[in-house]
Amino acid sequence: MQILTRNEATHRAAHLHVSAIDVVVDIRAAQDTTIPTYPVTSTLTMTSDEERTFIDIVGDVTEVLLNGHPHPFEDDEDRVWVAGLPVGEPITLEVRALARYSRSGEGLHRYTDPEDGEVYLYTQFEPNDAHRAWPCVDQPDVKPEWTFHVIAPAGWVVSSNGIETGVESVDETGALRHDFTATRPLSSYITAIVAGPWAVIEGGTWSGGASDGGHAELALRLLCRRTLARYLDSDDVFEVTRAGLDFYHARYGVTFPWGSYDQVYVPEYNLGAMENPGCITFNENYISRSAPTFSERQRRANTTLHEMCHMWFGDLATPSWWDDLWLKESFAENQGASAIATATRYVGEWANFAMNRKIWAYTQDQMPTTHPIAADIPDVAAAKTNFDGITYAKGASVLKQLVAWVGEDAFYEGARRYFAEHQFGATNLQDLLVALEGASRQELSSWKNAWLETSGPSTLSASWTTDAVGAITDFTLHQSGEACGGVLRPHRVTVSTWRVAASALERTHSFDVRIEGEQAPIDPDGVLAVPGGAASADLVVINDDDLTYAISRLDERSTDVALTYVASIDVALTRAVIWASLWNAVRDGLLDPRRFIVAVLTAVPAETEPAIRDRLLLFVAEAISSFLPGSLRTDVHDQVLATTIRLSRETQDADAWRSYTRAFIAEFAARGGDEYEATVRGFAASDNPDIAWRARRALAARGLVDAGAVEAWRSADGSGEAARMSVEALASLPIEEARSHAWDSVYSETLSNDFLTATLAGLQASSWDGETGIEAAVDRLRSYWESHTIGMALRYANGVLAYGLDIDRDGSVERSVGLLRSWLDTNGDAPAQLRRIVIEHLDAFERDERVQRRWKQDQ
């Protein structure tokens, strides 16, 4: 496969103007899964400044017509070259091809529901897989109008970017052609069709306008597989959708620019969701066969409003190339969180962000592969691996700091100017900065240099002295640029001081501080939170409102107080900021994981923010598996099992019960516990499918059930989810036959994307203590990468490399480190994206090794 480079794309965009593409997709035979291909025709209306150009298409090109007449072409892998074009004249170029259905989640993916045998199709293209589905010019800065016609079996529901205008019978089988309106100018990677016997849930019409004078009347629909329809809590989704549309219209000044709003939950999805205008696709894992918890609904709301923001940031104004990916992803991440916290019932979203997404950013940004937010992306392969914690969560955090720095009014005025100037166009960083500078009347080039063109996190800390009564004096905020190449960034932060009173923490002062160099004085006349109180040194919280992107260090006294009293703070965002600081200290070997775990187990029963509670329990599991030496794990493991099962039994809250039970089962699966086997077997018989399958997979991984039991559970359930989870359970059985079969299936080319991931996850989860096969799997990294789509290659590489934690059952990762160092030494010329993934996993193992060694010395 040829990789499209930035230089090629720039040249083609400069010489080829495509005003419209008309696509006819014939999927009438899709229900016969023995047929691997489908006919597709794209007619491009265009003008070329050169007599020779290429059109992107993965498939067998059968014919090319120029202005309606057959024309010679050169089929070159996933490109079709056409010469002899009339230069500077409007033409139509019709490309006919046979494209392939996908099992990898890229292109046009075909899925058969094991529960009822129905076939479903959907597309997924980012960054440039549209040409797997139909001929096109597959780069973001080429934005024609698109018109889709889909020939599908009778009874199927079809959705696309446009509004369906008519349905017409095409043959004696009853197949129907679905015609859609032309879109506004749109990049190829966000074109879409979904087709199948989808269940459709109508959500009525949303009406609204914006300051541009336009007005939208949007029909809201949800689509999902029929077998999942009764589990989709549509009222919550529609409530969030309407709130989001109101939020963005009030701020962006541009009426919703697309004609429809279908939200489609699709199976075997590689992403969380994709912002295709009018046909937004979501991973169907957002639908739960068990009643979704508050945290799960909040996570879905986050994704819903993230994708909605893209209707403006990304779809209306599109980054010209993937260097400026942050222009859409960072904004959607930031604005999605803001919309949720402001306009929905999920008001704790910024606390959720601080505990989840932002930790992802800090982790990614401290790796040797870190990069600036405005990255250098030479080709689309590099773009694929750049959808990471820096582009998403760090960028969103930096935007939050920008809003704090210039003010919210100026930020949104800048956004309105940006959309007014560049709607339906392709943009770059400078376009946005011009709009923001005009709105804020501030020079932002230095801000850009410090925040967008450098890598690594800043580090903030504080120092002070205390007087005779314990009040803080000589209060100073410090900034270190050691982790970001010495760069000292401008920050606006809140620093707060707390005292212990009646076994609880209360805020005494809150300080608004700006720092641009190594240090800044903190004004002693901060906002007083406790009448008559003095700023206390019991706890000093840096970046209390989480306004900036920086690792904040707690001093020794604050650490001790936080570990004991953090649960008593009544502000969720402050608790989240403190927990994030403590977790970063664990990762950096500055805080004993055992102290952190004890603090979490003590605090979670009182935690009122579900997202914080759930994340803390995940922190516990990671602290044990990554940062505790094997020799220290037994006592902590026993404590976690005993505490989580006790909390599970004591709580009256259904969501908390799920959280504690999940944590208990996960810890049992990881390290066993003979006295709890009967308890886990009881969970395996639960009428809650989520808990039941977690317990079943745990029993399989520990070797406490056989393949027959797993197959019986799968047969009794019959759902697509059960099929996937049983694959994982069977692969985890700690017997040679099961492991051999699992590894054979990985290389059989028969697994779909989801089943490949499930199989590798099962192999990793197993308690098998014999030869793992991981060395051979690492040896095959390069050959697998070079012979598969990047989506499948990423799943294989990440699945195999995550395995390393369990090579040595004592918890050591020394063999993992040695294995990956050896691979890098002997594969210096491997694809850059594959080497990046290996380097990142190696860096994680080396961090684990350092931290484990630190606490092993203190035994």
Percentage of residues assigned to helices: 40-55%
Strand content: 15-25%
Query: Nearest-angstrom radius of gyration?
Result: 28 Å
Q: Detail the poorly predicted runs.
A: none
Characterize the main sheet: 12 strands, mixed
What is the overall silhouette? globular
> Termini distance?
54 Å
Structural class: alpha+beta
Number of helices: 28
E-strand count:
30
- Average the pLDDT over all residues and give the rounded result: 95
Short précis:
By secondary structure, this protein is α+β, with helices and mostly antiparallel strands. The two termini are about 55 Å apart.
Please provide a written account of the structure.
42% of the residues lie in helices and 22% in strands. The chain has 28 helices and 30 strands. Strands 1, 2, 4, 5, 8, 9, 10, 11, 12, 13, 14 and 15 form a 12-stranded mixed sheet that branches. It has a 5-stranded mixed sheet with strand order 16-17-18-20-19, covered by helices on one side. The longest helix is centred in the last third of the chain and has 25 residues, at 832-856. It is globular. The two termini are 54 Å apart. The mean pLDDT is 95.
Q: What's the layout of helices and strands?
A:
Elements: H1 6-15, E1 16-26, E2 37-48, E3 53-56, E4 60-66, E5 69-70, E6 74-76, E7 79-82, E8 91-102, E9 107-112, E10 119-124, E11 145-152, E12 157-160, E13 164-169, E14 176-180, E15 193-196, E16 199-209, E17 215-224, H2 234-252, E18 261-266, E19 273-274, E20 279-283, H3 294-310, E21 317-319, H4 326-343, H5 349-355, H6 357-365, H7 380-384, H8 390-406, H9 408-422, E22 425-427, H10 429-440, H11 445-451, E23 458-466, E24 472-480, E25 491-501, E26 504-515, E27 519-521, E28 527-528, E29 539-542, E30 550-552, H12 556-565, H13 572-587, H14 593-603, H15 610-627, H16 633-650, H17 654-671, H18 677-684, H19 689-701, H20 707-717, H21 720-732, H22 736-746, H23 753-765, H24 774-779, H25 781-787, H26 790-802, H27 814-826, H28 832-856
Parallel strand pairs: 1-11, 8-9, 17-18, 18-20, 21-22, 23-30
Antiparallel strand pairs: 1-2, 2-8, 3-7, 4-5, 4-8, 6-7, 9-10, 10-15, 11-14, 12-15, 13-14, 16-17, 19-20, 23-24, 24-27, 25-26, 25-29, 26-28
Helix pairs in contact: 2-3, 2-4, 3-4, 4-8, 5-13, 5-15, 6-8, 8-9, 9-10, 13-15, 14-15, 15-17, 16-17, 17-19, 18-19, 19-21, 20-21, 21-23, 22-23, 23-26, 25-26, 26-28, 27-28
